[in-house]
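User: Round two. Same drill as before: sequence, then structure, for each protein.

Assistant: Same drill it is. First protein:
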Amino acid sequence: MAPAQRVGSGFFPLDEELGVLPGSLSPQSQDHLSRLAVWMPFEQAAQMLAALCGVQVSEATLRRQTYTAGAAYEAVQAAQALTAEDPGDGPPADHLVLSADGAMVPLIHGQWAEVKTLVIGEMAAGQEVGEAQCTRLSYFSRMSEASLFAEQATAETARRGVTEARQVCAVMDGAEWIDGLVDLHRPDALRILDFPHAAQAVSTIGQEAGVQELTSWLTTQLHELKHHGPAAVLAEVSRLCATLPLNESMRQQYGYLLKREERMQYAQYQQDGWPIGSGIVESGNKVVMQARLKGAGMHWAPAHVNPMLALRTAECNERWDEATQHLRAARHAQHQLRREQQAWQRLRQQVCRTLLQRVAQREHDSPPSAPLPATSSPPPTKLVPKYCWRQPFLRRSACAKQ
């Protein structure tokens, strides 16, 4: 019996109809392992998957599947940011709050990098003065440069209707990259300096100046700043800076406050129902990034941070089911493209083999060519024996006549 011929990999036609993804795991199992890995370390996620679903996978397989899913969903969000066609969460709110900040994530080889997080929330209705509260928080996090981060966040700001909202405020710590972010998405947003950052600057000036009874002095200044505005506080810190004009730290903190005087009208902000602190993004850093990426002994490869953040924000925004649909569609498209490329490659190889076989067959079947007849060359012409070529010209002529 002749041995069976080798065959290549193929696919079952019902795979497309049933939505089966490449690999040995079912779509539901792949979804479960990615979702568990978003909340806990990979080893624990593998153990939990085995305990809950009876599916045995290694830690390496779970890690690889999670990174693949995260990279695919990151590409989906990048495409949404370019087209800005992502459907919104309903009619835009009247009052939205933006807040952004950065936090450090540990990388391999002892390196650290900044993860930027944008939080968008709605102002709760029926609040008393000075008790502003944000609801329906959503997050967007990436480890990227400031300008690229602002562009990548377009999908989330479009979804939340930042450009359509009637009023938007941005509570920030005064960093320039946050101003650039707000300029891109809502240039007319009301900008508020985070009150704890302003308080920290006032406290530093009091400490450097050696103020007596610093606690009492600081309490008075912060009460004045919060309930009456920055005018009296700036006058007081200016007086302290004049006593120590060469103190560079005091000068920097005073310049920080003076430059942001218009953003410290806290009495008016509270009267209008706006928050004066960036607590939503401080907690957002903990919820989105630190709770999963800053565990004990964790160090991440740079290429794995954003895929994990993409999945993490999908879960924290309570959009996992929607993200799974986009993810499966993207992975099916990638698989279809890969299969078409392989089919074209096999076709090219088959065409090349066929051409080579025909050339070899033609050379084998063609008769040998007849040898060309030999051509006889005329004999060399010899000189006449009586030719006197060594004689002078005149004598040669006479000799030739003989």
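Second protein:
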Amino acid sequence: MNRTPLPLWVALASTAMGCAFGVPSYRPVVPHRGAAPGIEAEIVEVTHQNGLTVDLKVEGSAGIRLQRGLLVPAAASPCREGVRDSGLFLDGPGSSPFGAVTQPQWLRPVPITGSHRITLKFPEGASSSLLYQTPVVDLVILAERPELREQGTAEEASEERCVRVALSGKAPELQWSRPAPWTGITSLRFTYPSHAVGSVDNGWSLEFGLGRWFGPVRAKLEAGFGIGDCRGYCPPGPKGSGAGFLWFPLRASIDGYLVETTGFGIAAEIGVHQFSATRTKPDETARWETSRGPRAALRFDFLALPAPGWPRDARQGAFGLELSLGRWSSATAADEPALVWGFGFVNHTGF
């Protein structure tokens, strides 16, 4: 079979996801709190996905109502500037794909007497750029003044207050974390044995996997499918079909970073791999060839580069070029073992 090139767009589509900053939720390293007379607020969780979602825990006294949320640079005047929330959810997950669906609160101000969970959504674009300007979240509050209740409407008998809560920045107390013990893996790999084993030769594969961090080391399991050349015993199948092999790689490995800096890392990996390859024989039955052996790889990764205060280590996501060296020993043929080298594009996404 002639080697089949894979279009570049497939490589990009299968590997580009991990470099994007922010799919999951983040927790503050230390509490991010703010207060004004009659109300206390604390940011407990932030999600970066289709904009910015901020979850707050608030404690309000009687007559406290929330008018709106603002995302602003810390240098801005309190509750006067910035990006207004595009959605406010009361006591619900808001943006979460799990749990009950909560409708946004469009009738403002919203009473928040007592303990509540407030979710504010801010639009993509403006919110992303503000993350680089030491952002804060301002809550515009209306507080009832009983002494003025008889002199006019509820709005006229209220005064405006502002609660400012720091969101993120370079300072240690503004940092956010995400343990991200699990990793989703997508890879496009090209494999070249020193000689055919069981008539299976060069090929490519698209693979998917799952990994989990244990301290500085990650255990991974990957599987996929691809196409391999046939060299040697390669009789055509029915109607000339079956010129090459359809193969199914399976890999188990551990990896860790030898070097990890801002935006770049070098990872080493060791493990085992197995290739189960099949093609159609002239009698229309399936022919299977299986090879397995050890494998080592070195990977040069680009790491996510989020705004100051947000985690930028390899657990969050990486996209890199992998160079590998392994060995094939056939489980189905008497061929000599072969050295196998390869390269690939590998994407890791923490969740």
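The longest strand covers residues 286-303.

User: Perfect.
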